[in-house]
Amino acid sequence: MAVDVTAAPTGARTGAQYLAGLRDDGREVWMGGERIDDVVGHPLLGGGARGLAGWFDWCHEHAETCLYESPTTGLPVNVSFLQPLSRGDLERRRVGLRRMAEYHGGVMGRAPDYLNVTFALFAARSEVWARRGNERGAENLVRYYELMREHDLSTTHAIMNPQVDRSRPDAAAGAGEIALHKVGESSEGIIVRGARMLATLAPYADEISIYPGSPLRPEDTAYALCFALPMNTPGLKVVLRDSFAKPRPAFDYPLSSRFDEQDGMVIFDDVVVPWERVFMDGDTVGYDEVISHTNWRAQIVSQAMVRAWTKLELTFGLAHAITQITGVSRFDHVQEKLGEIWSYVEMTRSGVLASEVGSYGAGPGELAWTPDERPLVALRGLMPRWLPRAFELTRLVGGAGFMATPSLADVDGPMAEAIEQYYQAGGAGARDRIRLFRLAWDLIGSDLGSRGELYERFYLQDAYRMTALAYVLADKTEAQALVERFLQDEL
Ligand SMILES: Cc1cc2nc3c(=O)[nH]c(=O)nc-3n(C[C@H](O)[C@H](O)[C@H](O)COP(=O)(O)OP(=O)(O)OC[C@H]3O[C@@H](n4cnc5c(N)ncnc54)[C@H](O)[C@@H]3O)c2cc1C
Fold first, then answer.
1. What would be the CATH architecture of the domain defined by 295-477?
2. In angstroms, what is the span from residue 455 Cα to ligand 1's centroid?
3. pLDDT tens for residues 283-311?
4. What's the rounded Cα separation, in Å, for the pair 52 and 14?
5. pLDDT on residue 491
6. Residue nearest atom 23 of ligand 1, based on CA coordinates
7. Is 460 in the pocket of ligand 1 (CB under 6 A)?
8. CA dihedral sign of residues 261, 267, 270, 273
9. Which of 173, 337, 389, 481 keeps 20 to 30 A from 129, CA to CA?
C-alpha cells in the first residue's frame, strides 16, 4: 500500500518499508505498451526498485553520516533534509551526501537526496514563497517538507515542459495545450492538464513535485503552478522510455541491473491537486523568484557536484585499475590521460570545499546557510564537459578490452578453460579482468552508461547556457579594477 502520510511518521525508512510503499493502488505507469501495476514485481523495473531499496538500507548502515535527529519528532531522518544554519551544517550534509552517492557511484542522479535538498531549502526560504499574498502556499510548502522528511518520501520532479517548439514560450507552443496548466478549480483544489517532459525516478517515487523550470510571461498565469502529489493520484500517467535495466547477474551488468532510475513523461489528465498541496497558483513573478531569490541554485548544485565528484572518482578508479592490469599505465600519454581525469576529480572536490569556505549566514527571517555560489556556478558549466571527457579518456586507455568481455554464463560455461587462458591480463586473471571491464563499460558505454552521459550534459540545462549564465552572474569588479589599474597613465 502507498505511504500513509496521515499515519505516525517513520523517520528514515528501511528498504523493505520503501518497497512496501511502492505497492500502491492506482499508480498509472506505462512501458512497452503495457500498464504496469506492480513496479516492484516487474521483470524490467524490479531491479531498479530493489536498487533504490538498497540505498535506503545503506543510509541506515551509515547512520552516523547519513541520518540526523529530526528537530520535531526526534526520529532519525535523512541528512539531505537538513536545513543548514552554519558552515558546520554544510559540511555535515556534504559528508552524508558523499556517503549516499558512494552507494551508486554517482550513477543515480535523482536518488531521493536531490529533492530532499531542494525542499529543505524551499521551506527554509518560505518567506520568498509567501510574497504577494501566497502565505497559504508557503505554509503548505513547509508542511509538505516536514511530511517528506518525517515519512522519508521518495520524490520525483518534472520542471520542463515538452519540446514542442523551443523557439516560442512554452505557453504558446502547441496552442497552449501541451505545457502543464490549470484548467479550473473546485472546492477540493485546482484542476491541471497537460504534460511535463521528463521525470527521472518516476516509477520509483512515492510523490511527484512540480516547481519552476523556465521563466513565464506575465500573461501565463495558468502555467505558474507549484504543487506535489502522490504518484497514484487519479489522472496522473507516466509513460516510460525503454528500460535499460538488465535482469542479468550483477557480474554482467553491475550498474544496469540495479541503478536504472528510469525517465518518463508525466501526463496530467484533469488531475485535482488538493488545496493543501498547492504551493503556488498563478503568480508569474513568484514563479521566477522562488528560484532566483532563494539561493536554491547554490544548494542544489552543491548536492549535484558531490554526486558528480563521486562519479568522476569512480571513473578515475576504473581507468586506473584497467591500465594497471593491462600494463599500459607505464606509457606517458596514458598517464597524461589518467592525470586529466584525476584533475577533474580534484577540481570538483576543491570547488565543493571552496563553496563551504566562502559560505555565508542567513539574513533576517532566512533559515538557510548558503554555499558560495561562485565555484558551483563554474562547475555547473564545466561538469557537462568534464564527465563525458572522463568517459572518453577511459575508452581511450581501455581500447578493445571493453569488448573482450564474455558474460558470466560463458565465464562459467563450456568455454571456461579457454576463457581463463585467453582473457587473462598481465595483472589479473580472466574473471577479474572481465568483471572490471564490464563494470567500466556499464558506467561509460552501455545503454545506461550513454543515458548517464546525456544526463550529465542536460540535467541542469545545457552546458552552453550554463557557462553563458556563469559569465552573466560573475562579479566582474575585481577583474575590471585590475584592467583599470593598467590603463592608468602612471603605474
Ligand atoms: C537523462 C535526463 C534526465 C532528466 N531528468 C529530469 C527530471 O527528472 N526532471 C526534469 O524536470 N527534467 C529532467 N530532465 C530534463 C532537463 O531538465 C532538460 O534536458 C534540460 O532542461 C534541457 O532541456 P531540453 O532537454 O528540452 O533541451 P532543449 O532546451 O530543447 O535543448 C536542445 C538543444 O537546443 C538548444 N536550445 C534550446 N533552447 C535554446 C535557447 N533558448 N537558446 C539557445 N539554445 C537553445 C540547446 O542548447 C540544445 O542544444 C532530464 C534530462 C535528461 C537528459
1. Up-down Bundle (1.20)
2. 9
3. 999 999 999 999 999 999 999 999 999 99
4. 10
5. 63
6. 461
7. no
8. positive
9. 173
